[in-house]
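Students often ask why we bother predicting the structure of a whole assembly rather than each chain alone. The short answer is interfaces. A chain on its own may look different once its partners are present, and contacts between molecules only exist in the joint model. In this exercise we take two input lines together and write out one structure for the complete complex. Read the inputs first and try to guess which parts will touch.
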Amino acid sequence: MTTTGDERPLGIFDSGIGGLTVLKEIVRQLPAENLLYLGDTARVPYGIRSPETVRRYAFQCTDFLLQRDIKLLVIACNTVSATSLGHIQEKISVPSIGVIEPGARAAVRATRNKRVGVIGTEATIKSSAYRKAITAIDGSMVVFGLACPLFVPLVEEGWTDGMIAKLTAERYLKDLKDEDADTLVLGCTHYPLLKGVIGEVMEGVALIDSAVETAKAVTAVLDELNLRNRSGAPGSQRYFVTDSPQKFSEVGSRVLQDPLQEIERVEI
Amino acid sequence: MTTTGDERPLGIFDSGIGGLTVLKEIVRQLPAENLLYLGDTARVPYGIRSPETVRRYAFQCTDFLLQRDIKLLVIACNTVSATSLGHIQEKISVPSIGVIEPGARAAVRATRNKRVGVIGTEATIKSSAYRKAITAIDGSMVVFGLACPLFVPLVEEGWTDGMIAKLTAERYLKDLKDEDADTLVLGCTHYPLLKGVIGEVMEGVALIDSAVETAKAVTAVLDELNLRNRSGAPGSQRYFVTDSPQKFSEVGSRVLQDPLQEIERVEI
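Now the answer. The structure tokens for the assembled complex follow.
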């Protein structure tokens, strides 16, 4: 290892733009790291495909990033994390991190009454991935899952505050409030952008932002394995997409709340 | 031709459940007809795929229905109608009808000031298919297109009335109201279910329901070609899907506002 540390990039992928919330947190927590982001926008959404198909796509995304000499892989997609993380970890030699374990661990640390809510897409909730991860850490936890299908289109439209977002959050979260959970996992990479309205509706409940928790896990792994970039220069971000860069740029800029540059269309 | 007329079924397909609004209108207008409905739910949404891919999928759906000896094909999907209707008509011998022409013709008949609004998915609006169809009939028409991405998830969630639907409609349609269009085409097969709130927001504007117009066109073609079923028995409906029948049944029953039966999963 040189004094500049390990300058190789981190590779991050998602089926679309949701994983940009994870990228944003990694930039905030690890500003010196170079990042490659792959959004498989031609085949989004993964959440409605069979687990076998998702795994096949996930391996293609992984191969694409491995060819670019990454030092760590971040699976910034709940569906892929739920269905494919173990399979990928068995096959590749660079370390990899999904979004579910970090969120599950943070929820277990945060709850006082052992009653945890999880919101996500239908695919994530149906997979019970968070319930399994949380109860694997502590079998006495009670986990309530709830799918909120309108949250992703709201975020992609940029309507993350105002009355429509507020009323939608109230309508979805009403049942969850009755369950007396003291902790709520935002189990979809789009949802951190709705933290404001969700926090208003779920006042007094601890919100677990899986983007923040995943970035913390990335930091911890880089430190443990001594893989940090110590070159002193600010890190770069490059984006790859499998469909039109234009829509990715438009919607992604709303998600990141920052204009996106250096977007390249690729075949994988 | 026997006295029972032509008992062969009509074939209807869509990428998912949206086309059920067209089916429902056909049942209402033509209760004696037997209907086969194919929803390519494993590959929904078509609207985000390239035209070449949509055409390939559309031919597979068409072949599936032709193998079941249909007498007429209804393409109950705006994306397929916009990209593939001509290609399909060139290749097959049974008559076929898309959803765009009937809506465009009805809009031209309805408008007094020649200013027509069209709302639809991003893919439909970007394709300019309605603008082209309307101005092909009358070149002096002015057409305003507007994508309303949240309408489909609202309908699929069953939230078709109440404050959230109302506020969403107000927010989308505000700009369109300023354009002084006197006619609005609901250019997406999901949107007829939002006719109530859209009508409130666009008071005084004629709403063109492309499901109703398409069913009228089907009736006219059956009459012209003497293809009506005159057996006297009530028509049957059978549903085929390419992914899990369960979700199709849940969401489809909300769309049809009637429980769905006889759903079969198929490979196409």
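Check your guess against this: The two ends of chain A are 32 Å apart (CA to CA).
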